[in-house]
UniProtKB/TrEMBL annotation:
GO terms for biological process: carbohydrate metabolic process. The lineage of its organism: Bacteria, Pseudomonadati, Bacteroidota, Sphingobacteriia, Sphingobacteriales. Gene3D superfamilies: 1.50.10.20. SUPFAM superfamilies: Six-hairpin glycosidases. The keyword Signal applies. It comes from Mucilaginibacter pallidiroseus. Keywords: Signal. InterPro entries: 6-hairpin_glycosidase_sf (IPR008928), Glyco_hydro_76 (IPR005198), MUG_Protein (IPR053169). Pfam families: Glyco_hydro_76. Residues 1-17 form the signal peptide. It comes from the Bacteria. This is Beta-galactosidase. Coiled coil: none annotated.
Amino acid sequence: MKKAIFGLMAAAMVITASCSKDNGVTPGGGGSGGTTPPVVPPVNAKSYLELAKETRSFVTSNLLTSSFSYRANTTTLSNSCFEWYNVSQIYADAALAAAGDASVLPYMNNTFKFMEGFWDKADPRGGYFASVNLNGTGAGGDKYIDDNGLTGMVYLEAYEITTGADKAAYLAKARACADWLINSGMWDGTYGGGFWWNTAKPDKPTQSNGVAMQLFAKLYIITGETIYRDWAVKTNDWLRAVMYDSASGLYIWKIDGPGAGTKHYEKFTYDNAVMLEADILLGKAMNDASYLAKAQAIGNAMNAVLWNAQYKGYIFNTDPTQTRINPAWCGWGSQGMIRLYEQDKDEKWLTYARNNIDALNKATRNADSHAYYFFAAFNGSNRAPEIEGVDQAWMQRVQAMMAKYEK
């Protein structure tokens, strides 16, 4: 997943530094902590379900191929096909199906079949490569822990809403993803443990370990197999010991470099949304309510540190040069808040989730095409030209999730 972040984000940083028109936006300024923020008026009179369907319509018309793969974007990478972009669309379709639109199920299941082209069939351990051609040939690139971990989680959500052979296939492949993580050699004693980001082993990020922890915990809940529980606990122990910043109540970006390692203390919205959900799942796996309290504490810290009170939305990260927002990585914050609401029924989490979606719709959505721009300032200026498939997927997903709780 971070091939996009640290390739595309690097470009975004250059663009932001050179072209920003909204330097007055201060990330995290005036965070409201655990209090309920005021609800801002919606972008328009459309329901979140209607907005999710409009996003899906754009994807079908502009990104979907005859192979049931998805183009990476509509501009510079229109002939590229990325692993985590494709599974993010499956995730989006699973949410839309759960919200009542069964028309997306054939797309979801056919893309799942297409995903087999990413799988490393030459290695008995398997694992998904980062990219393929639009027709499913030519798999290559590194293998990413976060891509494979997220993919397993996507398949488990698809498992929950399907039946018969489809249901069994999703569970089997989710287990294959987890088994690759365990046997990949990507966990070692450097920095006391933890998964490397990818097979090139440049660094160990929070989010790679967080999605792996999610997958292990959820597989234990479903299968009862203790190997998954043990790996969930092992991953959590390392994250808490090495990556948790007690001063902010949030998880840091990554650790890298020689010796004991250099810690990068930037805080990302989606890293912490990942960890919030990981704690919820581990609490269920261990039947331990203290993990829900930890998830709630992360949620409150996110809303103190990563929330822009002026525009009522989540920032990308705490780097003060990063004044623009992104639909996927900022939108992940809404999923985290919805997950908290599903556990404790505290309406404040839904308010943050709703406001964040509305802020992203105002800043990054093209009202005519219904597409989302890769980056934009909170006020809607300084929009990047790229229309990334993963951004469409995540906005479809969080709006479909939010539709279940519309009043």
